[in-house]
């Protein structure tokens, strides 16, 4: 599904990713762990095509297509979704208009007719339940005045609406209390199918307790330095990252 | 005095003809206006209130003037198709500066309410017109008001008697229509007697490709406890130049809300002067500007708090794209003795490109010591993070930009009292941002 080969990327001339290799197969959940500044968020931003980041070399294939040549919106249409670490507030743009624009853009890309207003609202109602998102929030401006937890729930709600095949969760667990984490994680699990995959960026084990990753990677200084099973995450939770650093040195 | 001279000459040569095709109070003020125009000349960039619009250049080209009041063939219903659905109005047309009496609305206005040609009113309702004409407009201090007063032959007269409430909004469509490049000098007089209530909607359209230069002077008198909502919607083409001076006099307890919306234009300069003469009066000024290409829009306001307990709100928002240029200068004057004044002024601007320019100058001048006033301005760019967030959800860059601009403009739209107009404006603004309103359905050139 996703094949990253020798990916190098920089921001403002500073090289952050220094040769990433990563393959995600359909149905797999990969966890990406690492200390601050290791390049985790850079990788997610590069994958979704944030224009602030520059890819200097390497390839990324997504379902057989060259991802790096696509616009951010086309990557989304092809099934890529990013749950933002810091969801953006957009005052004056209602959630309804925002989601309708997104859904209809995707339908247009796949040569489908726009969704009727009634069908769309019905879909909104159903998908809201996945993350127990209040109908009042759905009627407000995008993320405006949402609490930290509401913003993250709103991300998973959007994921439910757009039905991506590969979701990147960028520290979706940060800033969540225990209940909110459970709602978000359970919401995510409800959306899983044998064909959908995820790349989960996190510092903590507790999200992974819910999501049960198949593969765990450790990112350090722009490279994946260690890959293992779920037990690797547990080990990091207990011992931190220093032992891996020592292992490499 | 280069561009002034041609207007001085025209006036001197054509004075007889101008008078002949006008009447009453309109003619009696011309000498005073002429003397003042000859003295002032066109304001240059050194004149504070005109520094953002090049007035002499706007008046330099050779425009035709229709002093003989020859009729240009026009079918206003055909020319004007941008109606406001679901908004039931009493609809009138003014073609150039002539009140169009061949298409009067079937509905009858409440007793005593007058909506008619100003020229006609100057003789038929001479007492009413004489009492007010030129009394609010600054003929001696503003060259453009002086020029308009020199040349104006007709326009519109609206009169609402004491305690009469006009439920149905009065809509006046100003159509610019000509076979040559044309200068139009339109005059509007609105008198709201004590306790009167009305809503007026002016829509300006150009319906053929000629250049137009329009000067407009609107005088509004709101007597004690009168309520007026005045909407001005400009939807003209890029070869149109508009100079509009609106003067509002408010007595005690009156409420006047003015909405100036520039949807599409060429060069526009709007002046709005309010004098709050009686205590406890309320003024709301709202402005929305949407400009791209090389369009220019300059709004200049003065709110003169001359009595106690008066309240004013101003909100002007500009969305400037491509190489457009906007200007806002708003001066609030709180006079000595105007205690307990509450005044807020805000100007917020979105420059969508690096080439778009905005000049803003909120001003507050306070001579009383027990008042609550605020003023401020912001100029911002498109929020790149918001744009990317939307693109990640599959929304194209163009659509994302449209949504942001629409959201920015929304604050002014939501302040509009007429619900049907609000809905219509949302639709028009969206079309405008999508580039589908390069022209209104009647206009021939824009692009």
Query: How many distinct domains of chain A?
Result: 1
Low-confidence stretches of chain A: none
- N-C termini distance of chain B: 34 Å
Strand content of chain B: 35-45%
Largest sheet: spatial strand order of chain A: 6-9-10-3-11-12
Shape, per Cα inertia axes of chain B: globular
Oligomeric state of the chains?
heterodimer
Count of spatially separate domains of chain B: 1
Pattern of helices and strands of chain A: EEEHEEHEEHHHEHEHEHEEHH
> Superfamily at the CATH H level of chain A?
P-loop containing nucleotide triphosphate hydrolases
Coarse structural class of chain A: alpha/beta
CATH-derived architecture of chain A: 3-Layer(aba) Sandwich
Low-confidence stretches of chain B: 439-447
Instruction: Give the CATH level 1 class of chain A.
Output: Alpha Beta
The count of helical stretches of chain A stands at: 10
Largest sheet of chain B: 10 strands, mixed
Strand content of chain A: 25-35%
Structural class by sheet pairing and helices of chain B: alpha/beta
Question: What layout of secondary structure does this protein have?
Answer:
The complex is a heterodimer of chains A (249) and B (447).
Chain A: E1 2-11, E2 14-24, E3 29-33, H1 40-48, E4 53-62, E5 65-66, H2 72-77, E6 80-83, E7 90-94, H3 95-109, H4 117-130, H5 135-138, E8 141-142, H6 148-162, E9 166-170, H7 178-190, E10 197-201, H8 205-211, E11 215-220, E12 223-228, H9 230-239, H10 242-248
Parallel strand pairs in A: 3-10, 3-11, 6-9, 9-10
Antiparallel strand pairs in A: 1-2, 1-4, 4-5, 7-8, 11-12
Chain B: H1 2-20, H2 25-28, H3 30-40, H4 55-59, E1 64-65, H5 76-79, E2 90-95, E3 98-100, E4 114-117, H6 118-124, H7 126-132, H8 143-151, E5 154-160, E6 170-176, E7 182-192, E8 197-206, E9 212-222, E10 227-235, E11 240-250, E12 255-264, E13 267-276, E14 282-291, E15 296-305, E16 311-320, E17 325-334, E18 342-351, E19 357-366, E20 372-380, H9 384-392, H10 397-414, H11 419-433
Parallel strand pairs in B: 1-7, 2-6, 5-7, 6-8, 7-9, 8-10, 9-11, 10-12, 11-13, 12-14, 13-15, 14-16, 15-17, 16-18, 17-19, 18-20
Antiparallel strand pairs in B: 2-3, 4-5
Helix pairs in contact in B: 3-8, 6-7, 9-10, 10-11
